[in-house]
Amino acid sequence: MQKITADLSEIPCPFGDRPHGARVETGPLQINDDWPGVFIRGDNAMYDARWCRQAHARLKKLLEEKVDIPMADWMLLSFLENHAKLLGSSRV
Predict the structure, then answer these.
(1) Beta carbons of 39 and 4 less than 8 angstroms apart
(2) Which of 3, 26, 77, 82 is most exposed by smallest CB count within 10 Å?
């Protein structure tokens, strides 16, 4: 896991009662001059990982009933499994 310490004073407060946010919310994020990326808060990541695992299990069950499985379906299955692992890796 990569860790950074950041000054959060430039993050807008979503509630309006403070001059800036106290935490980074899920959404697009750019750090310094690097490429923008997407930050997913740990609580959101755990929820999304759960849905990826459920979608993976359902697709796998459907594919097990087929004989001729398109490569794209295997790739989707792999994506869901790997994405669930990535999202779940934020659990500390």
Answers:
(1) no
(2) 3
Report the alpha-carbon distance of residue 53 to residue 37 in Å, rounded.
23
Same domain, 53 and 89: yes
Q: Write out pLDDT tens, residues 19-35.
A: 566 778 899 988 888 99
Task: For residues 30 and 48, state if they share a domain.
Answer: no
Q: What is the DSSP string of 35-59?
A: PPEEE--HHHHHHHHHHHHHHHHHH
Instruction: Please list the pLDDT of the chain residue by residue as tens digits (92 residues).
Output: 778 887 777 777 666 666 566 778 899 988 888 999 999 999 999 999 999 999 999 999 988 887 788 889 899 999 999 999 999 998 77
- Check whether residue 56 and residue 46 sit in a common domain: yes
